[in-house]
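Help!! Second protein's tokens look totally different from the first
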Amino acid sequence: MNVTLAQPRGFCAGVIRAIEIVERVLEVHGPPVYVLHEIVHNRHVVEDLQAKGAIFVETLDEVPQGSVAIFSAHGVAKAVVRQAEELELRVVDATCPLVTKVHLQAQRYHKTGHEVVIVGHEGHPEVEGTRGQVSGRVHVVATVEDVERLELDDPQRVSYVTQTTLSLDDTRDMIVALKRRFPSIKGPELSDICYATQNRQAAVQDLANRVDVLLVVGAKNSSNSNRLREVGEQRGVVSYLIQSADDLQPDWFARAARIGITAGASAPERLVQEVVERLRGWGVDSVTEMNGQAERTVFPLPASIEELKA
């Protein structure tokens, strides 16, 4: 058997920034530091940060008044920001800058009197954060069927934004459906799908032509990891989403000579290498890496971190 590693894979700039924010806040302020929701959707990342003194909470009600709180990379609603102010929390915002861009777009559309449609998955933290940027009616659609069921107050005054971690193919179909139903709708084409999501899906599309089985390393609740598995399946490749090497099953490879491996944007590279090592023990004798899109995007850390020294 041989293994081909997708390129790019794993951590994106937004995830790297979010993790660095938590680590830097712990250095500057010292533990405990409270993080609202998983900083990124990966259990291994969360456990590493917990070991360093981060405490993960699901609501700000769990955070003592006046403490340091970090918002996750997925972003939060305005109501959460107001609650943090009322609790006098010292907030560091780790929202990915590309998610912030979507927030600002939603706000601009709302200010012009448009109903806002979010193309994304109901209940996902990023979608809920975007929904919470505007008052009034906000609609969430995840399928073309959802688009067909939409009922708007004024079909002439409607705009859409998209979750950053969606399938490019599915999102394209939904944008076409939205424009068909509401010809005057305004929105950003596919530009809200972040560069890292696009690059990783493109790499899997290429990789699918070369392999018999695709392994996607990522968390079960990671949207972009689930989309990578779907991209592989849509191209006729048996595809599995695994959280670590412990999820591997020997019978997956009984008739597979060519194995492809990628990783979601919040999955550490060490998990990929552990999968490779497990497969070496099962008969893999060569590991190659695809040529792929080089990623050089770097997001600066927020200035509010250094202010914690005061």
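Here's the second one for comparison:
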Amino acid sequence: MPKIGRQRVRLLVSNMGMDINPFDLSIKELCTANGVDKRTAEQIKKYTNFDFGIQEFEAAKKLGISIVSFWDDHYPMLLKKIYNPPVVLYCKGQPLQYKEDVIAIVGTRRFTPYGKSVTQKLTSELISNNITIVSGLARGIDTIAHKTTVEGGGRTISVLGSGLDVIYPAENKILAEAICEKGTLISEFKLGTKPDRGNFPQRNRIISGLAHATVVVEAGDKSGAILTALNAVDQNRDIFSVPGRITDKQSIGANRLIRNGAIPIYSGEEIIREINPRLFNPVQSVQKHISIELTDEERMIIQNLGHDPVHIDELASSVDMNITALLQILLKLELKNAVQQIGGKQFVRA
């Protein structure tokens, strides 16, 4: 209905219940619902285009598209938690899941070879740990993330800024079909909706809303990927950004995100480690036993290190060694990946 937004629809249904037809209620009864004033109630009573819903449902059915409402059991829980979530989602492909571990990967349309390789690396590492990838089917980083997931046998969700019967860009029609085999195409726009410019900011909040975290690979100064990241901030979700060269225009926005608090990221493993406590199905880490040759001094140093940081002065005292000699041995242990320096002259066992 014109001028009846998502929030009013949710309030109306939540107050009245799913079994009541709001069009059968009086203006007085409608006004008892939160958010519905007399003017809104009068608009509801004047509505007559009841064939729209039936026609939309039948058209969707012919196209193999299902329609999921906010109140359905498999409406994604993470999306439900955002401000003003969609009331209706058009879905094609595999069904959505109520609890699904999802990471959003977004970025510029004009990517560099570096951006492409990083996207492929991160995507492959995430899907190997049963993480679903969500993106927007746009040219560039979005397309690379979707393609890498499909080729790797993973699951990906694509959120469109148009109706599901209007694939944009057109060159991604084959990719969209491939996504449907294991993944899902979704949109909150009615069938026939064209990819108008104003639709994409609305689409971006769904991309970030479906995910535990948003990863920005490359993003220029005014990239749409930055808007998706800002949506993630509003939704209290994590933001990761891939550091880029300061001379690359495609990394201006991504680097700015890092300066403003986004987590710089280098691998999918780091992303999982950060969000693992919040995953519905936490990834079970596999302890790798690596055989390395150690001298007696090196072994003694490792025995005095754990997973809590130890300052160089404290370590020198524990192993009874001068700091200069100790630093030389610690450097050798770092090269053997046996210890790690974490800043402030503090060390931990790797």
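Reply: Different proteins will give different token patterns, so don't panic. The radius of gyration is 26 Å.
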